[in-house]
Amino acid sequence: MEKELSYAEAIAEVEQIVARFASGGMDVDSLAANVKRATELIAVCRKRLAKAEKDVAKILKTE
User: Fold this and answer.
1) Which of 5, 16, 43, 54 makes an SS bond possible with 10, Cβ 3.0 to 4.6 Å?
2) Domain limits, the chain
3) Pairwise CA distance, residues 39 & 37, whole Å
């Protein structure tokens, strides 16, 4: 079972994928797999951001 990534880890991996793509360092054979992985990582980031937003709203509501 893969450990759950932090927001920072997920965004760093997305940035690595984008950099490889932008530099031409990604071959056509791995393109689909990298796009899939980036999509999964972006979903992790969105989930983390939504949770943080909810937590902050909850804190502000109680003060």
Assistant:
1) 5
2) 7-62
3) 5
Q: How much is the pTM?
A: 0.81
Tokens, residue 60: 């502000």
CB neighbour list of residue 31: distance below 8 Å, 6 or more residues apart: 21
Q: Which fold has domain 7-62?
A: Helix Hairpins (1.10.287)
pLDDT digits (tens, 9 = 90+) for 1-15: 568 899 999 999 999
Q: Which residue has the tokens 């880890």?
A: 9
Q: What is the dihedral of CA 47, 50, 56, 59, to 10 degrees?
A: -90
